[in-house]
Specification:
single chain; about 400 residues; alpha/beta; five-stranded mixed beta sheet; binds pyridoxal-5'-phosphate
Length: about 400
């Protein structure tokens, strides 16, 4: 059983109690450097091939344990951890593109990635970016140019949970020798393994479900391509310096031990909340990959093992009704992250420009909710009460 294998990776891969006085959890290697008896010993250290250590920006033993777990979970050759999801994302872009490169990017990927492209890569590195829906394979193929270096994807993407046919996009990219990058944060490696569909680089922010407790920032890149990962580790993480701290890496290891039980609970609650919302007369539309009404339900069944705790909806009524509803919620606090124990709600595009809304083709009243671990019935009661209060 695939999931059983994943559980062993989460609990055991990379761990070696014998090395650490039989301590059941590994220590936090809170050191910036390793020292040697001779200069030759220091000089012979091989960080990538032999998993050895000499300086904290290059590698750390605690971080290395977490990296091995994530590499195995995603069926990759190597994983490299960063100080945040954005440090990982920007390193991946800079490692695969150069001045003058053309990038194909899905319209609804994580907003700061698009800002990095629009406000830095295009004006300062003379790159070109074509934005595509992600659901139309022909549109992706037609956008490929001679200088296309990278296709940036997120599936499901976290506004309205658009899903990309990973196998088809990967096939096209390989045909034109273009690299594919995908943000797999929503599903985690337990619910989706994009490298198995032929995607080249997977990114996760550890800040969301992998950490799971809203107490760390971190990111990771993983690939089956050893050469590419060597370049990312020995060059782009080293040079840009966005390495994860040992304490954060240790907290990620701890978070991952309970990933499966947490994720199943988030999923169970979100499914119940999505179905409740869908049946409510004041709700216009619910977006959740676990709903049969999702326009790509069959594709979701094919490439995902499940869905997590994030969903979105539109109410009947004006965008102001959305604010009224969100403020009336009590258990769902107002905040922008997700993937932790806590339930959150927000209206992420309420203050977006009309231009941005037209670009995304999403209304400003879209409500995003993260279903936390406070109990399905408690959360549904909170939503019911808030919906009763709003006047539509
Ligand atoms: C939060 C988030 C990121 C960025 O992660 P950080 O750790 O905050 O840099 C990237 N992608 C998605 C889908 C996210 O939700």
């Amino acid at each position: 059983m695939e999931t059983e294998k994943d559980l062993l990776i989460l609990e055991r891969t990379g761990e070696n109690e014998k090395l650490y006085l039989n301590a059941v959890t590994p220590p936090v290697f809170m050191n910036s450097l390793h020292v040697f008896d001779t200069f030759e010993e220091y000089h012979d250290v091989n960080v990538f091939e032999k998993d050895q250590f000499y300086y904290g920006r290059a590698s750390n033993p605690t971080t290395s344990i977490a990296e091995r777990k994530i590499a195995q979970l995603e069926h990759g050759a190597r994983a490299v951890m960063f100080s945040s999801g954005m440090a990982a994302a920007s390193a991946a872009i800079l490692a695969t593109c150069k001045t003058g490169s053309h990038i194909i990017c899905m319209i609804d990927v994580y907003q700061p990635v698009k800002r990095f492209l629009n406000e830095y890569c295009i004006p300062c590195l003379n790159m070109q970016v074509s934005y595509v829906k992600g659901t139309d394979i022909q549109e992706i193929e037609a956008s490929i140019q001679e200088n296309t270096s990278l296709i940036i994807l997120e599936s499901p993407a976290t506004f309205i949970f658009t899903v990309v046919d990973l196998e088809k996009v990967a096939q096209i990219a390989k045909k034109y020798k273009v690299k594919t990058y995908m943000d797999n944060t929503y599903c985690t490696p337990l619910f989706q393994k994009p490298l198995d569909f032929g995607i080249d680089i997977v990114m996760h922010t550890l800040t969301k479900y992998l950490g799971g407790h809203s107490d760390i920032l971190g990111g990771v890149l993983v690939s089956k391509d050893e050469e590419l990962m060597r370049k990312i580790m020995n060059q782009f993480r080293e040079w840009l310096g966005g390495v994860i701290g040992p304490m954060e890496a240790w907290l990620a290891i701890r978070g991952m031990r309970t990933l499966k039980v947490r994720l199943e609970q988030h999923q169970k609650t979100a499914q119940a909340v999505a179905e409740f919302l869908e049946s409510h007369p004041k709700v216009k539309k619910v977006y959740y990959p676990g709903l049969k009404s999702h326009p790509q339900y069959d594709l979701i069944q094919k490439q995902q093992k499940g869905s997590s705790g994030l969903l979105s909806l539109e109410l009947c009524g004006s965008p102001e009704t959305a604010l009224e509803f969100v403020d009336a919620l009590q258990l769902f606090r107002k905040g922008c992250s997700w993937g932790g124990f806590e339930s959150l709600a927000m209206v992420p595009l309420y203050y977006a420009s009309q231009e941005e809304l037209d670009f995304l083709k999403i209304g400003r009243g879209l409500i995003r909710m993260h279903c936390g671990l406070e109990g399905t019935e408690n959360l549904i009661a909170d939503i019911q009460r808030a919906l009763d209060l709003v006047k539509i």
